[in-house]
Each structure stands twice: as C-alpha cells, then as structure tokens.
C-alpha cells in the first residue's frame, strides 16, 4: 500500500455514498479491508483493471442493507439454510450500485463492467474475468485476515480454532488467484500455528500489550 490512504481519491465519493448501506453485520469494516486487499492483489495481477475492481469492492455488499438483519447469519457460515438471500443481496447490490455510479459518474469507470462483477460475486465460484477473480479473492480473502477471523468468530460465538477449520475446509479452496491463495493460506497457517504454540513452548504466546492510536489494545 502506498501512503496513508486506503481509498483512491476517485473512490472516496463512492465510499461515502455506499456507507449508509454498509452499516449491517460489519460490512463497512469488511469493505475497507477488502479494498486494501484488492489493491495488494492488483499489484500482483496487472491484467485486472483496477478501475473496475475497486469500485466493485466498495459496492459489492451494499444490498445486504435490504435483507432482514435477523436472517443475515442464516445466509452464510458453515451450514447456511437461507442461501437464497445470498442471491438476493447480489441483485440488490447491483441496483443500488447502479444508482450510485450513474449519479456520481466516476471518471474512467465502466459502470456496466463494475455491475457485471458485483452480480454473482458470491453465487458464481469460477473466475469470469481477471477483475472478477480479484474482487472474489479480496472478498473471500478478508475472512482469513486477523480482522475477518475475529469478526466471524464473534458472529457465531465460536473459538478461533473453528474459524481456522472453516477456512481450511471451505473458504480457502475458493481462492482463485495464486496471490489470493497465498494470502489466505499464509494467514490461516500463521493463526493456526499461533494456537498450537503451547504444544512446543509449554505456554501460549507472550504478547506485550500494544496500544494503538485510538488508545485501545490491538
Ligand atoms: Fe457478498
Ligand atoms: Fe463481501
């Protein structure tokens, strides 16, 4: 990542327009981190067009806002019972994204290309284009980040070891690019090993307390 900014100047208005739709199920946090992952992946995958991928990352999940919040966790996880809602959130995301992009008309962004990869970002599993592959890997790759793992563990109130299992058994196999797969498998291996340190050291990790800028322990 270059500099201190996550979002490119072109994408900041898109982010501001998307925010009111992202305040469900940590989608706002997920989106910012997935955007950063997409930038990293784009540096490794130059054939993917960043002006399509990055707006699509910001807007891919805005449609969850229109789904009953009580049903959200039934649509995902290890044993989803409401997979139809995954399909529905994609359709809503396309509608909302179209409205936002046609209003903002960001320079150099092919709106139809952005909408094409938002549609089906969860319900299709193959890489339909390099841009689609990067969007999907940034989205699913988030699950393997420290933030993603802790967030998902909190949703289901399960220990981190269950999330590691979910990543190993299901999620990491969905990664489509070599860079994305290395990202997901590397982070999963690191956290899995952290949970096993006691076996080799007779104790868990000796974290010193790191205080972040906000004053909260990291
Ligand atoms: Fe999604
Ligand atoms: Fe997502």
Could you explain how this protein is built, in words?
The chain is mainly alpha-helical. The chain has a single domain (9-196), classed as Hypothetical protein af1432 (Orthogonal Bundle). Helix content is 56%, strand content 0%. It contains 9 helices and no strands. Helix 2 (27-44) packs antiparallel against helix 3, helix 4 packs antiparallel against helix 5 and helix 8 runs antiparallel to helix 9 (178-201). 36% of the residues are buried. It binds fe (ii) ion (FE2) (2 copies). One fe (ii) ion (FE2) binds next to loops.
Number of strands: 0
CATH fold description: Hypothetical protein af1432
CATH class: Mainly Alpha
Mean pLDDT score:
94
Count the DSSP helices: 9
What structural class do helix, strand and pairing data support?
mainly alpha
Low-confidence stretches: none
Q: Determine the strand fraction and express it as a percent band.
A: under 5%
Largest sheet: none
How many domains in all?
A: 1
In quaternary terms, these chains amount to: single chain
Ligand catalogue: fe (ii) ion
CATH superfamily: Hypothetical protein af1432
């Amino acid at each position: 990542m270059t500099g201190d900014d996550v979002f490119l100047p072109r994408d900041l208005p898109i982010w501001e327009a998307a925010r009111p739709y992202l305040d469900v199920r940590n989608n706002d946090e997920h989106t910012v981190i997935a955007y950063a992952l997409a930038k990293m992946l784009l540096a490794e995958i130059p054939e993917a067009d960043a002006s399509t991928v990055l707006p699509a990352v910001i807007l891919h999940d805005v449609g969850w806002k229109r789904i009953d919040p009580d049903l959200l966790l039934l649509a995902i996880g290890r044993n989803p019972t409401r997979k139809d809602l995954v399909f529905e959130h994609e359709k809503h995301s396309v509608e909302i994204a179209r409205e936002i992009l046609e209003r903002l008309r960001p320079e150099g962004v092919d709106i139809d290309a952005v909408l094409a990869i938002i549609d089906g970002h969860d319900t299709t599993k193959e890489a339909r284009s390099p841009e689609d592959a990067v969007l999907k890997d940034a989205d699913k790759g988030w699950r393997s980040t420290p933030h993603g793992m802790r967030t998902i563990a909190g949703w289901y109130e399960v220990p981190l070891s269950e999330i590691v299992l979910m990543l190993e058994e299901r999620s990491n196999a969905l990664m489509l690019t070599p860079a994305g797969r290395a990202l997901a498998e590397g982070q999963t291996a690191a956290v899995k090993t952290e949970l096993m340190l006691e076996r080799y050291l007779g104790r868990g990790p000796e974290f010193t307390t790191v205080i972040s800028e906000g004053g909260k322990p990291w």
